From TrEMBL:
SMART domains: HTH_ARAC (SM00342). Signal peptide: none annotated. This is Helix-turn-helix transcriptional regulator. Keywords: Activator, DNA-binding, Repressor, Transcription, Transcription regulation. It comes from Gluconacetobacter takamatsuzukensis. GO terms for molecular function: DNA-binding transcription factor activity; sequence-specific DNA binding. Residues 250-280 are annotated as: Disordered. InterPro entries: AraC-bd, Homeodomain-like_sf, HTH_AraC, HTH_AraC-typ_CS, RmlC-like_jellyroll, RmlC_Cupin_sf, Tscrpt_reg_AraC-type_HTH. Residues 155-252 form the HTH araC/xylS-type domain.
Length: 280
């Protein structure tokens, strides 16, 4: 097992290694002088930046630019590969993103890792590094992320909900927690997040559900824990969001999850979306 601290004082401009973490490990907020590319081979992890949270599983990758503060919370035992790339090779335009890993990207990362930590950056390795950066830039982004608001009152509410996705307290409760009138709360939430509070909370739940099911938790248990009265209504909401059933995900035969865009939805007076699928 290798860590960033184990790298030599002056590594090549691109360097990588394979690693693993045990479930429950949290790599607290930190930043790197280089850009970080992570490819996840097994397990599930939540990666948080200052304004977003990403849930990643096998076959997915994430790019974190140099200097970006981030934290990794291992939902299960995690096996991954990581490559650190000098900012001089990536420029300033390669923003934070998650994506499905292509076979080409996987091969390029394998080649870089095989070179170890002490090699000459010759013309061949320079071409490999440039091609890898190109692959990161062209990889289609996956929408499996949670945006967090910049307003500190809304952010406090959103962080409380992501910590306990099954919390069923209504919008009036959360408006009071934010110190706002209900109308002000809903208007500001829509303005900052681009969707209503109920739709955002539903997204929190289904992303959390995908991580739990992939880790082996039963569908019925996940549904109840996340505020649904029954597994059927939960499955309907899950399939509406991801395009596959939770049972398919549990069987491990589904393609990488690509959540459909969440459109702003009309909300009833109690803050619940019409046809909300049996959430408690």
């Amino acid at each position: 097992m290798k860590r960033t601290a184990d790298l030599p004082p002056h590594p090549p401009p691109v360097v990588g290694f394979a690693d693993c973490y045990v479930g429950g490990f949290v790599d607290r907020f930190h930043a790197h002088e280089r850009g970080q590319l992570s490819l996840f081979l097994a397990g599930s992890v939540t990666v948080s930046t200052q304004d977003r949270r990403f849930v990643l599983g096998p076959g997915q990758g994430m790019w974190i630019p140099a200097g970006m503060i981030h934290e990794a919370d291992c939902r299960t035992d995690l096996v991954f590969q990581v490559v650190y790339i000098d900012p001089g090779l990536t420029g300033a335009d390669l923003s934070c993103r998650m994506f499905d890993v292509s076979s080409l990207m996987r091969g390029l990362v394998d080649e870089i890792i095989a070179m170890g930590f002490d090699f000459a950056m010759d013309a061949r390795m320079a071409r490999i590094a440039r091609l890898l950066v190109d692959e990161i830039g062209r990889a289609p982004r996956i929408a499996d992320r949670l945006m967090l608001p910049s307003d500190p009152r809304l952010r406090r509410v959103c962080e409380a909900i992501t910590a306990r996705p099954g919390d069923c307290r209504d919008i009036d409760y959360w408006a009071r927690e934010a110190g706002m009138a209900r109308r002000t709360f809903t208007r500001l939430f829509q303005q900052e997040m681009g969707l209503g509070f109920a739709a955002w909370r539903r997204r929190v739940r289904v992303i959390e559900a995908a991580s739990r099911i992939a880790a082996g938790q039963s569908i019925a248990e996940v549904a109840f824990d996340l505020g649904y009265d029954n597994a059927g209504s939960f499955s309907t909401m899950f399939q509406r969001t991801f395009g596959v059933s939770p049972r398919t995900l549990r069987a491990g035969s589904s393609p990488a999850l690509r959540p459909y865009p969440v459109l702003p939805a009309r909300q009833d007076d109690d803050g619940a979306e019409p046809g909300g699928g049996g959430e408690r």
